[in-house]
Amino acid sequence: MKTYFLEQLIASSNAAFTTNDPVELAPCVLTIGNFDGVHLGHQAMLAQVRDIAHTQNLDAAVMIFEPQPREFFAPAKAPARLTNLAEKQALLAQYGVKTLVVAGFDEDFRSLSAQAFAEILATRLNVKALVLGDDFRFGHDRTGDSQFLRDYGLDVTNLDTVTDSNIDNDHLNDVNNEAARISSTRIRNLLLAGDIHAANILLDRDYAITGSVVRGDQIGRTMDFPTANIDLQRIKPALHGIFAVDVVSLDENGDVIPDGLIKLATDNNIGVAGLRPHSLFGTANIGKRPSVDKGDDWRLEVHFPKLKADLYGLTLQVRFLHFLHGERRYDGLDALKAGIHQDVINLLAWRDNQV
């Protein structure tokens, strides 16, 4: 998949979008949206894009926004990210997207008229057809819609809202046996409630976070529970609390490194096997760590029982398996250490019941 940033693709008299070397895209079928989570609803949209692209011998393309619009307008009140940009790129590539256009959402972009945006689609992005949601709006003050694009001369297919009526919803406790819209908001609510299984049904995969291991404040090390601090690359995460996790190491192409973590172990402290190939089992805390008073500093920290290894700089994918409980405030480091110790015992017991 090729990724372009919109500013590189637009040649315009508007100074905000000028470029010395504009890039022409191959003729494409395009869909537009946040695609946060790339859930079953998004996947239905992508399948339609692929089908039209195949029929018309075009590229399958997606335009996303970075930051997401609500992050631009009100960062403090924006919804938690299910996927950061890198995770979204990897998922879209898996679902057959050939071209990804990242639109920098800023004051210049949001001020574009519907006419100017349509011209960009047709002349600079080489769009021949679009697949859009039935409620899609665009342009300054949201004055454009699908009919506007049809009147401009573009072929537009509208996809009806995707619900869970055609999937196993026995574990989707939020719908009361009625078909409900599959949405990023709904998945966020499920994750926040600790209902990972239901969220995974709507995602059609296990929820995971990918990031590099960076240096933290090393408080866990002083309590004999060293942790890998995973760079979240988002304003705030979509789930909070204490979890059982599976972790694999990824190479620069995003592929799993066979036994990548075990190979780094020293003194035969190779950790506890995870539940998928080449993974190690871990216990994770994701949140603000109220017991160490770090304010609004969101962290994902993973402890690997029985592992001794230097993990700094690695890219890890953390797959969330089981929610234990929400974050707790402990009175002092001794109480915190005892709480962590009990969490590790409980999560290892849960793991042992799965194998």
Please characterize this protein's 3D structure:
This protein is an alpha/beta fold and 355 residues long. The protein has 11 helices and 12 strands. The chain has helices at 6-9, 40-56, 69-73, 85-94, 107-110, 114-124, 146-152, 184-192, 196-203, 219-222, 333-352; strands spanning 2-5, 28-32, 59-66, 99-104, 127-133, 155-159, 208-214, 228-230, 241-250, 280-287, 299-303, 315-325. A 6-stranded parallel beta sheet has the order 1-4-3-2-5-6, with helices on both faces. Strands 7-8-11-10-9-12 form a 6-stranded antiparallel beta barrel. Helix 7 links the parallel strand 5 and strand 6. Helix 8 packs antiparallel against helix 9. The longest helix is centred in the last third of the chain and has 20 residues, at 333-352. 36% of the residues are buried. The model is unreliable at 12-22 (pLDDT under 50).
Give the arrangement of secondary structure elements.
Elements: E1 2-5, H1 6-9, E2 28-32, H2 40-56, E3 59-66, H3 69-73, H4 85-94, E4 99-104, H5 107-110, H6 114-124, E5 127-133, H7 146-152, E6 155-159, H8 184-192, H9 196-203, E7 208-214, H10 219-222, E8 228-230, E9 241-250, E10 280-287, E11 299-303, E12 315-325, H11 333-352
Parallel strand pairs: 1-4, 2-3, 2-5, 3-4, 5-6
Antiparallel strand pairs: 7-8, 7-12, 8-11, 9-10, 9-12, 10-11
Helix pairs in contact: 8-9
